[in-house]
């Protein structure tokens, strides 16, 4: 009977799949309400990312839909990041005309020239972005790997002699030292360079450009400084700033009539000459439609491995799902061959922004969906290790970014090792790098490695107000660092064991239990500004060098903390990073069995999880919340994980401009959404996926490694999502009671069939069915 049902379902779903997945990709999702998503034209993991930039206070992705004005059209961006705006280098700005038809009639400075746009004109699809300015200029853009192509069309009624400028700024106005630009009198080609600061890290970087124009006849060209321009001067070197603000400067080109103008901008981190060569090779004939078509083909190919049944599913669900997947392939960015760090044959990726976010869902998703890209990313991380001496926790614009917690590249390496094991990766070098994280403290652990390792090794925890003279970083986050270092060590043990190093495996398993040294069994928790007890005892607390306890309210930095607590990398921050002790209390991914026992057993564990979610202590817009949605699995209550998933997705995610609950964080939020709707949640660093019913009748993924198709099917699928509880399951036709699967499911093309009902069942609830844990379950 099961076989008959499955065959019938297969026949039904075969006619109800998405034919063109790009129809359901909306790049504008997350362009307001703090999503900070890049909405423009790009190739998957491409360097060139063309979009309109606004003067919004939340323009980290360049374009926003919050009513802000347009300041330019630039060719490099990150996506979904927090902190200061990133990149947005060398923006172009088109004028339909200038006052009195003179150069000085143009408003050159970025802060003064901004102009509104018509909302209904905005169009964003994979590989294409367009809008119309209130000045009448229509701006369209597409991109190749290192080259952007813009098309500016001018209203014949409002403009007779258009002007396009290119200025030497970025989104953050971070230009350093002197910058230069030259314009060729005959062709109008503009070349130049400038030095900028990364948005969330140390140091600086130099970027280069090469801009060419095709279309209207050139009237003249020249350079501008501040609010004045001259066609007599063709070269400019401009100083850093006046009173902290970069002095406006750049070049202009004027045209004799309103013929549409194509502007091609090549990019390089090595030289303007290379930028020109790349532009000429990638878009030799200024073919806008051809470039756009090639970009669309790239995206269509990237989206091809996954198929879902559309029966009973509305457009909103499909758009949420496929747009989330799309956003996982904007960052990181492939800078191989265009960076000054290594030779052109060495893989180099950047905009790992930040691994503290990426390891939780982004990289695990790509391991399934685009394994070759992850292999290159791991190779790129090893490149950074060889050049800089350490794996990064965050890295952008050729520079080290700030470390937020542990050495979480260790988690990515463990995840990749357990699931990929490609011979294209030097796993002995991987192990050397992650072991160095655990054993050697860098001088500047603010941006790499770990701090406080002397205390870690002698006290077996990171103390509050640690004495650390060997390295320097922000002496905060002692609790979250202890918890993250513990899990980092477990991930190292996984690699050690796989490589046959039994001694190191056992060593790092022992150190992975150091989390327990900050658990204060008698610590209570009152509601903030209240005498009401939450009813739970036992929380992590800071501990001093002399092994006496400090105190931090377990609800500080939680979603319900309204006291303006300092929770990030400030030197006045507390002992947890961007989250509360309440939430971090669940962050022991490798030993949930021991944590459950520590909390008093599975019933208390479930009540704690319920309290965390029901009282809104956690917020799904921040990555530490992700795993807590599904941790009911470890207490034998997978149905409650499904219930939480079906609350969070429709409540916090929508296919609208403001449809994300927080920063997309380089596609991490999009990956979490995709995983949740697929009915799987990864436990990063382990070969474990927790099972819940997909939001579709079926989901199929073709492995990029084996070419085999893995499928999850819901029998009794209910489009109203009332029947969301697994009653029983089969794997390749055999009864399956575990509430988790491993990566072989994808590599071997297995089929998981879930039989659904409206009530919680006993499926996946027995101890033998629970996910792996370092300790034995005691229930």
From TrEMBL:
It comes from the Eukaryota. Residues 274-757 form the Glycosyl hydrolase family domain. Gene3D superfamilies: 2.70.98.10, alpha-1,2-mannosidase (1.20.1050.60), alpha-1,2-mannosidases domains (1.20.1610.10), GH92 mannosidase domain (3.30.2080.10). It holds the Pfam family Glyco_hydro_92N. This is Glycoside hydrolase family 92 protein. Keywords: Hydrolase, Signal. The keyword Cell division does not apply. One of its GO terms (cellular component) is cytosol. InterPro entries: 6-hairpin_glycosidase_sf, GH-type_carb-bd, GH92_a_mannosidase_put, GH92_N, Glyco_hydro_92, PNGase. GO terms for biological process: carbohydrate metabolic process; glycoprotein catabolic process. One of its GO terms (molecular function) is peptide-N4-(N-acetyl-beta-glucosaminyl)asparagine amidase activity. Residues 1-16 form the signal peptide. It comes from Zasmidium cellare ATCC 36951.
